Amino acid sequence: MKKEIPVSQIMTTSLINLNLDDSLYKAEELFKKYHIRHLPVIKGKKLVGILSYTDLLRLGYADSIDDNLDADNFVYDTLSVRQVMMGKPVFVSSDTSIRKVSEILSEREFHALPVVNEDKDLVGIITTTDLIKYYHGLLYGV
Q: Which part of the chain is the CBS domain (predicted)?
């Protein structure tokens, strides 16, 4: 039987995250600056939610041509990260197998899962991009 490899071997540990009280302006800035699509939301070190770039796009203005739209400002001034994020996100522990993570992502149609320790402190994130790179390496020896 093949040994199950834990997600800790391939997860991203250099985290960019939001605090619960951060603004949607900050969220959009982080998405664009770091070219990422998911931001874990923490309170202290504890995971409390996850915000995706798609969540902002659903608001209708995050990727507009004119970055100075009054409507964009109104939405960002009216709503908070707390209101837009997915609260109580699905997460995994660092010893969850890569196979199990792949199953969760494909069955739930997620693109990222926060990784937490036994105290629910955020320790990493695993994305579909991480998995593609891992499986590509297995297939092609890269």
A: 11-68, 85-142
Residue 77 lies in a domain: yes
What is the tens place of the pLDDT at every residue in 86-115? 999 999 999 999 999 999 999 998 899 999
What total number of domains does the chain contain? 1
Domain region containing 135: 7-140
pTM for the model stands at: 0.85
Domain contains 1: no
3-state secondary structure string across the chain: CCCCCEHHHCCECCCCCEECCCCHHHHHHHHHHHCCCEEEEEECCEEEEEEEHHHHHHCCCCCCCCCCCHHHHHHHHHCCHHHHCEECCCCEECCCEHHHHHHHHHHHCCCEEEEECCCCEEEEEEEHHHHHHHHHHHHHCC
